[in-house]
Design a protein that fits this description.
Layout lengths: L1 H67 L13 E2 L21 H11 L16 H4 L5 H6 L3 H8 L9 H29 L1 E4 L20 H12 L5 E5 L6 H6 L6 E7 L8 H4 L4 E4 L6 H17 L6 E5 L17 H17 L4 E4 L7 H21 L12 H24 L1
């Protein structure tokens, strides 16, 4: 009897033990399932956020860098919106002369303007140097780090002997002047917004993109200028009119998928940079072959500007890259546009921006081989802005532009002045 009771008790204990074990295993499996669910869900959310977060973080970081930049500063009303610094000029033991780009042209431009009485030295605006944080608005850390290698800089500016110099010297003699010009281009947008136009006697480094430099262009000043304008000037539509003889492949790559930027690029397809990928991102491509003459060039420009108007893009800012390497005799541009043709070209672009009430930033860009051509082209470029500021004041915000007859009259006057000036220079 006692044995039976013990057997029953033992069996009961075993059943209780099995039930408890089953219950414990069930609870454990449920908890483990919940753990796996939470684990894989967190992995999925982490993966999803990692695909969007970097983009959002990068945009926020870019905005903060722009807002904290010192490149935008107030300019006295007595100043003309013409930007230049003596630090623009590149002088590197004469080695800079190995490249056909005249790296001292910017100083000559302003000296000619001052000597000819077109400009007062004290009325020029001097920009600040673009800092690393400013440059990181567009450029990557890896690209900026690559500029710490002298051979890399030598390849970008196409002057091989620079590769042999210590990078500290290359930074001071080559890249510092470039960074000052970048500061000038960025500031030009602010002055243009305030006064209707601004010219940076430098800049226009249209072969440089966020990740790649070349063609004597180490920093993407045009891209930087536009990104600053988006944030600081509350501008949402920018048109780039690039009339340098070479294709502006740098800004084309940077704004390849940005509908806020409309690019009109008029270039010689038979010369550097032969960037066929970047050509896919040009909104309005105008190709002018080697040997194109003044009349043909201007006719194509008229057609291009008319077509741009039909697109109804309605720019809030025009960035005009006014390279003068389209001049007859320039071995790099290989076009045959006369000095008067340059005057007419610039007038057409100014008129285009003016009639649309769009502030205009003008960048000189392009190499100058001959001093006489340099003198002529530089005065023509700068005088257009100066004369317009003196005789056709830009309308204040909200004010409608006066009838085009008045503008045409003023444009005709300054065209005659510039043509006469050109004749005097050519005769000198």
């Amino acid at each position: 009897m006692t044995f039976q009771v013990k057997a029953i008790a033992t069996e009961f204990t075993r059943n209780i033990g099995k039930s408890t074990l089953y219950l414990a295993l069930t609870i454990a499996s449920v908890k483990f399932s919940h753990f796996l669910f939470r684990f894989f869900r967190s992995r999925k959310m982490s993966s999803s956020s990692s695909s969007t977060s970097p983009t959002a973080d990068a945009a926020t970081l870019r905005r903060n860098r722009i807002l904290s930049s010192k490149l935008y500063f107030d300019v006295l009303p007595s100043k003309v919106p013409l930007i230049y610094s003596s630090a623009y000029d590149i002088s590197f033991l004469g080695i800079e002369k190995l490249h056909p780009f005249d790296s001292s042209k910017w100083g000559r431009v302003c000296r000619f303007l001052i000597v000819d009485g077109v400009l007062n030295k004290n009325s020029i605006v001097e920009p600040l140097e673009a800092s690393k944080d400013d440059l990181l608005v567009v450029h990557s850390e890896s690209y900026l780090s690559s500029l710490k290698s002298s051979p890399n800089v030598a390849m970008i500016i196409e002057v091989p002997p620079v590769a042999l110099f210590p990078n500290c010297l290359v930074q001071q003699k080559v890249l510092f002047p470039f960074r000052k010009q970048v500061g000038g281009t960025i500031l030009a947008a602010k002055l243009a917004k305030e006064q209707g136009w601004a010219i940076n006697v430098g800049g226009g480094f249209h072969h440089c993109s966020s990740e790649k430099g070349g063609g004597f262009c180490a920093y993407a000043d045009i891209s930087l200028c536009i990104h600053f304008a988006f944030v600081r000037l509350n501008i949402s539509r920018v048109m780039i009119i690039d009339l340098d003889a070479h294709q502006g492949n740098g800004h084309e790559m940077d704004f390849s998928n940005d509908s806020r930027v409309y690019i009109l690029d008029m270039y010689n397809p038979g010369i550097y940079p032969f960037d066929f990928e970047a050509r896919r991102y040009i909104d309005q491509k105008v190709e002018v072959a080697s040997g194109t003459t003044t009349n043909v060039y201007l006719r194509k420009l008229d057609e291009a500007l008319e077509l741009a108007d039909q697109k109804k893009f309605d720019p809030e800012l025009v960035v005009y890259n006014a390279g003068t390497d389209i001049l007859d005799g320039d071995p790099l541009g290989r076009l045959k546009v006369s000095p008067d043709g340059i005057t007419a070209r610039d007038e057409k672009v100014f008129r285009f921006a003016r009639e649309r009430n769009a502030p205009l930033v003008m960048l000189t860009s392009g190499p100058m081989i001959f001093l006489r051509i340099l003198k002529l082209a530089s005065i023509l470029e700068s005088c257009i802005c100066f004369y317009l500021s003196s005789h056709v004041p830009y309308p204040s915000s909200g004010e409608k532009m006066a009838h085009n007859k008045e503008l045409s009259f003023e444009l005709d006057i300054y065209s005659l002045v510039l043509i006469n000036l050109a004749d005097q220079i050519l005769a000198s």
